[in-house]
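U., I forgot to send this yesterday:
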Amino acid sequence: MNDRTWLTQLEATLTQEHETQTARLTQLTADTGDPAEAHTNAALIAATRHSLEQISAALRRMAAGSYGSCERCGTAIARERLEILPHARFCVPCQQKLNG
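Result:
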């Protein structure tokens, strides 16, 4: 599959995942009235919001034409990495440096 086809399919997948996560967030923020679920729901809401932020940022990079380039060094992020972690902002060496 060529890069353009792959990128188009990835964008469609990310868009669908964004819609799914948005629906999930709507469900999680509905007040169930059960105080026992409040802590669990708060953690799920935070994780869902983080996921939405990552997906949105990846979609913005796609629209801007900067998707797939490391934000730190500017080199291309390996396609294999993007297939596993489509919202990756850094190449592996830069991510390792950031993680210490």
